[in-house]
Write a structure and sequence with these properties.
This protein is of the alpha/beta class. 54% of the residues lie in helices and 12% in strands. Helix 3 packs across helix 4 (60-73).
Length: 738
């Protein structure tokens, strides 16, 4: 009723004779907007119509509402088209809105679009190409702004925001070079606003250049004063901060991000990571110097972006420096002067470096194709701690980690926590079971996670019927690559079942099933443990006794060399009869090879592959080397094999001469320290020939004692190259020599 009285009073006022006072444009405008606010749209349309009849509406906003209300409440296509053209002639009009309005009328956009472009083009503004590209940039910037506003502080979100900002910066620079600076007369009001919003998130140097151009345009009323004000405010805030620190930390941040973008390029991962490590090292030196010169970065001193960039670089630094940086940040955070989410990230990574469970669940581990969480302390109160650090809940965080569910990475779970049941049904392997997440360490009870899937055995069966399950076949929990495996229970009465019950963290083959109707088992007793030799029953090749003794004698020697006999259970030696099977691997309690390797033995019986693979039972299976470090695993294993050849009194000198000849034939003399994988013939020679030859020239008793002590100290543990260099200082020259 009240609205009706207002409307009536307004229009009674309009109907007064000329002797009465006519409302001013300002008064009519106020009335129209009040009616809009009160949602009296018919009354508002009449008020705007009166304004236009008496004075002619010229400002963009009022003209826009008059058009919109005409379309919604007083349909008249010709009148709307006229209004649309008037909007087009308005200097602040944006082509995107004109396009939307034509679609409202269910008309062909180009029917009106071409007419409007014809109207505005002679006046030199409304660069439609410029507008379209700015609109695309604005959509990306809006998405990034939503992520900023959502307090999503995880690395993946921050990286996504940075990628948007970086792409928009490149595009805007290119646009300005090609089509000039964005002003009212060039792109219209809304695109000036979009460009301004994009610039607010750009580096200081470009921002200050842009602000200078915007001020010049504003002097001739060709730039929006409101958005110019936002730019000036950022400039004022920047002037409060240390601009030298800002510009230098921005350069370090850009280097950090550009290096990590290589991981998504065509470059191989190993090369990309080498570049990343080089950049991280250089950034650390620069950050240390910057803080020494200008002080620790805090919010009050440097602002959010400087603190964010400095924390990111510290997060990618070595453990000692990260720990120091975190201690300084904690002091600042006590007074609210550092970003709380970064405190959480750095705390978790610092705890990880100390092999302690994390507190906030920010750190995941990606290994062997699977991403899972590092262990977390007090899991029941995790989300409460996250909220206190301005982090989203762990449930909202998981998608950014590419994790469908919450679980710890299986490689962090003791292999005894797994239990799998395998059952063969024709050509299908059924897998079911569970693994336990060791929450009992922190909260009382373990969490049981069920798993079930099937695998086609055709992918794993050789031509002679043997089933060789490989780790890369993704057949155990989470169906990913090389993880610690499970306690396996398999029902396959018609097969010899070998493997599947031991901790095998670094090799490809895990479980071998041999059909009893095709494979025979030869048992050879030994004082230390029995040996079971499996081969095709149809293979009539006569194996010499020396062949079997090579396994037994070398095994007995290594028991003495390392002071450890490993086990009293049968040692399994498996020859796969399939001619395409040319793999040779020494797994815990089992050596698997193709028939090709027997031919190699008969050709070079005195320094064959057999003692090398047997030595791996200790050096490579009894003690493990991080990241398959071939220089430590393979080359030292070759040296240990030399000790066996030397002890039996034959094959040693011939082997040394062979190593030397191969070294001399190599085109490159590679230092062993540079080899982390065997990717070329030269690298293979450096590992298998140069390394044991160099070691053999050293004092054998010293080398042997060093290797034996390392084995005793780290038996059944993973050894890194850093640990090796620290505990085997006498062998460092061997690694680094050419």
């Amino acid at each position: 009723m009240k609205k009706t009285l207002i409307v009536c009073s307004v229009f009674l006022l309009f109907a007064v004779t000329t002797s009465a006072q006519t409302p001013t444009y300002k008064e009519l405008s106020a009335t129209a907007y009040n009616l809009l606010k009160g949602q009296d749209y018919i009354g508002a349309h009449k008020a705007f119509h009166t304004m236009d009849s008496l004075y002619g509406i010229s400002d963009f906003e009022a003209l826009y509402y008059y058009y919109a209300l005409s379309h919604d409440f007083v349909p008249d296509r010709e009148a709307e088209k006229t209004l649309m053209f008037r909007l087009a002639r308005n200097k602040c009009c944006d082509m995107r809105y004109l396009d939307d309005w034509t679609k409202r009328q269910q008309a062909d956009t180009l029917d009106y679009w071409n007419d409007i472009v014809a109207i505005v083009a002679p006046r030199g503004y409304q660069d439609t190409v410029y507008q379209n590209r700015l609109l695309a940039m604005n959509r990306a910037n809006n998405a990034a702004q939503q992520m900023r506003n959502g307090s999503n502080n995880q690395d993946s979100v921050r990286n996504a925001i940075r990628m948007v900002d970086s792409a928009n910066l490149s595009e805007l620079k290119q646009l300005i070079v090609e089509r000039g600076f964005p002003t009212y007369s060039k792109v219209g009001y809304y695109c000036v606003k979009y460009a301004s919003a994009i610039v607010l998130n750009q580096p200081l140097e470009f921002f200050q250049w842009y602000l200078k151009q915007a001020k010049a345009a504003a002097d001739s009323s060709d730039y929006d004063p409101e958005w110019l004000g936002y730019l000036i405010e950022r400039d004022r805030l920047e002037s409060i901060y240390d601009t030298v620190f800002y510009s230098r930390i921005e350069a370090l941040f850009q280097a950090d991000q550009e290096a990590r973008h290589l991981l998504k390029s065509d470059m191989d991962q190993a090369s990309a990571w080498r570049i990343i490590h080089e950049v991280d090292s250089a950034n650390l030196i620069a950050l240390e110097q910057l803080i020494a010169e200008r002080g620790f970065p805090t919010l009050s001193k440097l602002g959010y972006k400087c603190c964010d960039h400095a924390a990111l670089i510290a997060q990618h630094s070595p453990p000692d420096y990260l720990h120091w940086f975190l201690e300084q940040a904690l002091v600042a955070a006590d007074s609210g002067d550092f970003i709380r989410s970064w405190i959480a990230y750095m705390t978790d990574r610092d705890l990880d470096h100390q092999n302690k469970p994390q507190l906030y669940g920010t750190q995941g581990l990606t290994r062997d194709g699977l991403t899972g969480m590092y262990l977390i302390k007090d899991i029941e109160h995790l989300n409460e701690r996250r909220r206190n650090m301005d982090l989203e809940t762990i449930e909202d965080y998981l998608p950014h980690m590419d994790m469908p569910d919450f679980y710890f990475h299986p490689s962090l779970v003791d292999y005894r926590q797994y239990s799998l049941n395998l059952h063969i049904e024709g050509d299908t392997l059924r897998v079911s079971g569970f693994y336990l997440i060791p929450y009992e360490t922190y909260t009382g009870q373990p969490i049981k996670v069920d798993t079930a899937y099937s695998l086609p055995l055709a992918d794993y069966r050789t031509s002679d019927g043997a089933i060789v399950l490989r780790r890369e076949g993704n057949w155990y929990p989470h169906r990913n690559g090389e993880l610690l495996t499970a306690q396996v229970h398999i029902k396959a009465d018609d097969y010899y079942i070998l493997g599947g019950t031991e901790w095998l963290p670094s090799f490809d083959i895990h479980l071998v099933l041999l059909p009893k109707d095709k494979y025979a088992c030869k048992v050879i007793d030994s004082p230390i443990r029995p040996f079971h030799f499996y081969r095709l029953a149809s293979d009539t090749t006569q194996y010499p006794d020396a062949y079997y003794r090579e396994f037994v004698d070398s095994y007995n020697f290594y028991c003495t060399f390392f002071g450890d006999s490993l086990s009293s259970k049968p040692m399994n030696i498996v020859e796969i009869g399939d001619p395409q099977f040319i793999i040779c691997q020494s797994l815990r309690e089992m050596i698997v090879f193709g028939h090709y390797f027997y031919d190699v033995y008969t050709m070079i019986p005195d320094f064959s592959w057999i003692p090398h693979e047997v030595a791996h039972q200790w050096w490579g299976n009894g003690i493990f080397f991080e990241y398959r470090d071939y220089a430590l695993s393979e080359s030292l294993n070759e040296y240990i094999k030399l000790q066996f050849l030397k002890s039996r009194g034959r094959g040693y000198e011939e082997q040394i001469a062979y190593y030397k000849t191969m070294m001399e034939c190599a085109e490159k003399k590679l230092p062993i320290a540079d080899i982390h994988s065997v990717e070329s013939q030269d690298e293979s020679i450096a590992i298998y020939h140069a390394a044991p030859y160099r070691l053999s020239l050293m004092k054998a008793t010293s080398v042997n004692a060093t290797l034996q002590q390392l084995y005793r100290t780290h038996k059944h543990a993973v050894v890194s190259r850093d640990t090796f260099l620290k505990e085997c200082k006498t062998l460092q020259d061997w690694l680094k020599s050419k």
